[in-house]
Structures are given as C-alpha cells and as structure tokens.
Write a structure and sequence with these properties.
The chain has a domain of about 220 residues: 3-Layer(aba) Sandwich (Rossmann fold). It is built from 19 helices and 15 strands. Strands 3-4-14-9-10-13 form a six-stranded mixed β-sheet, sandwiched between helices. A five-stranded parallel β-sheet has the order 8-5-6-7-15, with helices on both faces. Strands 1-2 form a two-stranded antiparallel sheet. Helix content is about 45%, strand content about 15%. The structure holds pyridoxal-5'-phosphate. Pyridoxal-5'-phosphate binds next to helix 11.
Length: about 450
C-alpha cells in the first residue's frame, strides 16, 4: 500500500516512510492511496478471534511488504502488558448501550492502544535501516505519557515531551516524570499547551536542528496511530453484531483521530452504522455538521482537557474523501482555514458528512450529571471524557441499533473531576498503585527555543 498526501503535492511514500515522517512535506497528512476492503468471508473468519489476531488481519493490507511474522510478534508484545486479556473489553451499560473500555493499557487512556504498537514498529524499521531518531512532541497530558511509556528503554529513539508546567493532572505528570530510562524525558515548559506546540513546530522548522537530531513525530496526525485504532472497532462490531448487523459508535472527540479510525473500519467493510462525534463546549465539529462551515473559535478549558481543541487536525483526512480525494481542492480549503479562520463545505460535502456521522455537544453540567447518575444507577465510575461520550450516545441512539460508547480514559486518570461529581475516590489499578510514591524527575525550562534545543542536544542518549 502506498500513501498519498491529502494536499496532493508531496511524493507518494510507502508504509515505513509514512510511519517515520508523520506530516507530509506539502503540509498535508498521509492517507492510503485507496481503502482496502476485506471480503465477507474474511470478516466472518475473524468472529470470535482474539484481539491480536484481528489486529494482524486489519493491519495486513496497510503495511506494504513488512514481514508478517515480525508484525505478529510486535502485536503480541504491544498488548502483553495490558491489564485485561481481551485488551479492549465490551461492558453492557443498559439495554442497547455498551461501553468499549480502552483504558487497560499502561497509562490508562486509549492512546496506549496505538502507541504501544508504534514503539515496536519504530524500533523494527529503525533497526532495519540502522538509524536513530529523536522524537519531540507536545502534550496536554495523555499522548505524552503514552509515548514515554511506549518508548522507554528503546535503543534507537530518544523521546522529549513538552508539557505545560503546572497545567496537567498529577497522574499524567507522574506517568511522564517517573520513568527512569535515559532515552525518555518530559520537559515542563513555563507556558501553556499552545506554547509547547509552537516550540515543537519551531524545532521542525529549524532545519539545521531537525537534520542534526533526525527529528521524528508521533503526534496524532501520524497515520499509524489511526491505523492501530481501527482494530477495536473491528473487534467490537464483530462481537456485538457479527458480519451484518450494524453497530453505532459514540466517540469522545478532540483531534478526530479516534473516530476517523471508525470511519476506516467502515470503509474496510466492518458493519458500522452511525459514528457519533461527541464534543464538549469546544464544538467545532458539531457546528460543522450543523452549518457546513468549519470555523475556528477560541478554546475553553473544561474538565475534559483531552478534547479542548481549537481545530481537529485529523478532520483533514475526512475532507480529502469528502472532496473526492482531490488534493488541490483540500489544499485550497486548508488555505482558507489558515487565512480566514474558517472554510466552507459544499452542500454535497455536507450531505456526505452527515450520511456517515452524527454529533452531539455536551455541556459540562451534563457531563458531571452523567458521571453522578451512572454511578448511582449501576455503580460504575466513568472518567469525564467517557461521560461526554455516553451522554452523546443517549442523545443519538436509534431504537433498532446497538450503540457502543468508547471509554477513552480510566477514571483514576482524572480523579478530581470524578470526586467533584460523585464525592468518591478512584484508586489506581493495582499494577500501578505505587505511582504516587515513585520518585519524579522534573525539568522545568523557560518558553525559549534556544534553551530547549540546547537541552535536547545535551541530554540525547546517543
Ligand atoms: C486524546 C483523547 C481524546 C480525543 O481523541 P482524538 O483522537 O484526539 O479525537 C478523548 N479522550 C481522551 C481521554 C483522550 O486522551
């Protein structure tokens, strides 16, 4: 499988280069040249198979000439450290409503499902090419901890994660500052998340630094992150509906990576109905579905920080399909977005969007009420992101179609919000119960490109 840029003017690359590159050179995102489909028989054969087996068959058409035995071994290792043997178990909530638990990985958010695999994929490709890279990334919490956990101790990659000093949860911080391996570092920047992102961008634009360090990125626009997430749509749709019966999904959405994976699963032939975009007050996608205009507004801070976004970067991948895969058209729309802070979908594009997706905007008081009520009614504690998903699921459920809400984080990752909603404490799972006692390695640096680049030069494990 080859990969093309959504903006149509970057070279076509193979799977390995799409993995390592992240962003395409024309500023676009890599997407497969066409959507591979599995036959009815191929899909039927996956029913009842373990997560790892389904993962191998879902990934197979996307990975080019990668050695399948090596991929199988990587998948096995990636999910061996999860706290549940099903990897992504389904739990019934009420009649017709299910929860897909994506928080059994080492950092308690769904980012682990892709990142754990990506750690192995990078190592495999870098070993083969005898290369090393330096990964830099900015995080508002969950991506950074998942990346550090996935790359700790790996011989061919250094990882530096920038996070806003004092502005992430204690669990998120400790997950980044307690690993002791020399190749992974978290940097607390004296600034906010946008400052961190701007610094990372500036490092990529500093070509001398970029080439010297061989910078790489694992942020949410990396195609392999989306790809690895397709697997749990496949396993859950097979488990609930089999080959033919369609399942609807409600997905707590920020950068549109997770829900886009559901769209890919649907393109591949899995029985998926509506994909419901669940947003908090930062509702750019919900407004787009309603009005056909994708319009940037300011960001407001909520108790669901992983969904506090101004724009949803992976939405560009969907636009590419809505624009009949015309890169030139996408480039011009993205240009509008940059200069006018908004872009318009044509009537045809808006109709296509609404054929595949639904949406709901959940205000914070409803999120809190959802956490409280679910706990009172069935004794289950939801994290606030998952609660946004469930509230959206209830709003958009169809009587004849099972609905799955993606539970994107474990409640112990956001204990303050849960305590405020219910008064209850949420203990960490047994396997990481000592997180609050481990020693932290905290590095605070000013919001200054030269100082941060100098630190990375010096601290690289090479
Ligand atoms: C990252 C994240 C999201 C948003 O996922 P996207 O792929 O960016 O849409 C939702 N919930 C949690 C807990 C997250 O960490």
């Amino acid at each position: 499988m080859n990969y093309v840029s959504t903006r149509g003017s970057a070279p076509v690359v193979g799977f390995e280069d799409a993995l390592l590159a992240g962003l395409a050179r024309d500023g676009g995102l890599y997407v497969p040249e066409s959507w591979p489909t599995l036959s009815r028989e191929q899909i039927a054969a996956l029913e009842g198979q373990p997560y790892q087996k389904v993962a191998l068959e879902v990934l197979r058409p996307f990975v080019g000439d990668m050695d399948m035995a090596a991929l199988e071994a990587m998948i096995e290792k990636a999910y061996s450290g999860f706290g549940h043997t099903a990897v992504a178990p389904l739990v019934q909530m009420e009649s017709g409503q299910w929860l897909l638990e994506l928080f059994h990985g080492p950092t308690l958010a769904f980012k682990d499902l892709a990142m754990q695999l990506i750690g192995h994929l990078f190592e495999h490709v870098l070993d083969k090419r005898d290369e090393r890279i330096t990964i830099v990334g900015a995080t508002s919490g969950d991506t950074g901890s998942a990346a550090i956990e996935a790359f700790r101790g790996r011989a061919r990659a250094d990882v530096f994660i920038l996070y806003p000093h004092g502005r992430i949860s204690e669990v998120q911080r400790r997950q980044m500052t307690t690993p002791t391996e020399a190749n992974v570092r978290a940097i607390a920047v004296e600034g906010d998340f946008d400052d961190c992102q701007a610094l990372v961008k500036a490092m990529f634009n500093d070509f001398e630094f970029r080439d010297e360090m061989r910078l790489g990125a694992i942020n949410s626009i990396n195609w392999t992150r989306v790809l690895a997430q397709v697997v749990y749509y496949a396993t859950s749709s097979l488990a609930l509906g089999g080959v033919d019966r369609k399942i609807d999904y409600a997905v707590p959405t920020g950068n549109f990576g997770d829900i886009f994976a559901g769209y890919v699963a649907k393109r591949m032939g899995f029985a998926i109905g509506n994909l419901v975009i669940a947003t908090n007050e930062n509702d750019i996608l919900h407004r787009t579905l309603e009005t056909g205009r994708y319009e940037i507004e300011g960001v407001s801070q909520t108790i669901t920080p992983s969904m506090d976004i101004q724009i949803s970067s992976n939405f560009e991948r969907l636009i590419f399909d809505l624009a009949d895969r015309e890169g030139v058209a996408v480039a011009s729309m993205m240009d509008d977005l940059k200069t006018k802070k908004s872009m318009a979908l044509s009537q045809g594009q808006q109709d296509k969007l609404r054929d595949e997706f639904a949406s709901a905007r959940i205000p914070q008081d409803e999120t809190i009420e959802t956490i409280r009520r679910v706990r009172a009614e069935i004794g289950m504690t939801l994290d606030p992101h998952s609660a946004v998903g469930l509230a959206a699921a209830r709003q958009t459920a169809r009587s004849d179609t099972p609905m799955v809400t993606l539970a994107t984080a474990h409640p112990a990752k956001f204990p303050d919000a849960v305590r405020d909603a219910t008064g209850a404490e949420t203990p960490l799972p047994e396997r990481m119960a000592d997180l609050y006692e481990r020693d932290e390695r905290i590095t605070v640096l000013p919001n200054d490109l030269a100082i941060i680049e100098a630190y990375i030069r010096k601290e690289r494990a090479v």
